[in-house]
Design a protein that fits this description.
- This protein is mainly α and about 180 residues long.
- The protein has two domains: about 15-35 and about 130-180; about 40-120, Winged helix-like DNA-binding domain superfamily/Winged helix DNA-binding domain (Arc Repressor Mutant, subunit A), CATH 1.10.10.
- It has helices spanning about 15-35, 40-55, 60-70, 75-90, 110-115, 120-155, 160-180, and strands spanning about 55, 95-100, 100-105.
- It has a three-stranded antiparallel sheet with strand order 1-3-2.
- Helix 1 packs antiparallel against helix 6 (about 120-155), helix 2 crosses helix 5 (about 110-115) and helix 3 (about 60-70) crosses helix 4.
- The longest helix has about 35 residues, at about 120-155.
- It starts with 15 loop residues before the first helix and ends with a helix.
Length: about 180
Amino acid sequence: MSQSFPAGGFGAGLNTDSMWQAMEQLKTVFEKRVGTRVGKGEVRTAVLALLAEQPMHGYQIIREIEERTAGTWKPSAGSVYPTLQLLADEGLVNAEESNGRKTYSLTESGREEASAVSGSTPWAAAAESQSHSSKFAALPKAGVELAQAAAQVNRSGSPEQIQQAIIVLDDARRKLYAILAQD
């Protein structure tokens, strides 16, 4: 965060708008760090793996990937449908239209391709990555919630309550730095 708080504590010299702006900036910084990016070719692997289980239409594929990764990866229609078209062009999937939707299924060569990549499912890697990153997501979330509470005290607290909150926040800041100073 490029903006730092003025000397004298967390709330010293900040008006309500500045506190909200700082909190939103903090929240944005933390949110950018949370999430899962998948590698190139993972959509293809996921589509092949899912179609090896059963025929599906594009929306089902998107929803199934999202469910299997507990929401950490939801490929866009802009990545799934072109992948399905490419697989069809390569002769790995067939598309059958029913009720206005195309349902995709693997061809024999598609089954061979799916079995060749069946050892590693992209959602397993995404879930593992999320498990690793969720350990680091709790602290930023707690920080944002603390900033929200501080902003609420600043908006509706009495001058005495605001002064008490400043003391609590200064103490919390010192304790956090003490954690880093431990061996």
